[in-house]
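Q: Hi! First time doing this. I have a protein sequence and I read that you can turn it into a structure. Is that right? Here it is:
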Amino acid sequence: MKSKSSSINTTRLNLGRYDNYSLLSDDELSKFKQVCHLKSNTIYCDKLQILLIKSGSAKLSFFENGKEFILNFLSQGNIALLDKNISMEFLENSEVLEISLYKVQKLLKNEKFSMSLFNSLIRQIVLQRNIIKDIVFKNIDRRLYSFLISLANEQNEFIRDKQVITLPFSIKTLSELLGFERQSVSTAFNKLLKTGFLSKCGKNRYMINLI
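A: Yes, that's right. Below is the predicted 3D structure, encoded as structure tokens:
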């Protein structure tokens, strides 16, 4: 087995690890509200809020009529923009820095933090545009295919020159990332196995066979 090195890509599972809070002085940090959240806590914001994950991890989701659509996952150093339409669920005990959109203006004199904030928001805009494009133009088979290829490229693991993916979540979570019913995603996934695009090579591990 071998792993080929590559630079960190911005994906829905990995926005990259950025220690944005380290760019702030003690005085600037004092303008944030520091909050600790337990695993499984879910928060909503009535007004626009900027949240910075100081430690831990979370996921951003839309909820509507009992259904969930996962936008992306967050880890230490990631910045998220919350409003009344989106929720953040913590996947482990986490520490978060919160600040309103109005108050963050006072931090923009810090050029390094401003650029980091700008770059983070740009990455998320591009990511969300790609999500919209997939939803508008791709059916379930093509969307699942694209997602698995993206996951394989991120994990960057090979066996005998073939890419291998490890599914780090359940079919239920996969369906919430793709925006389809669980049964539909399960059927599409099994179709990839039957057609030979995927072959199982361990627990939750699959080899991609380009066909």
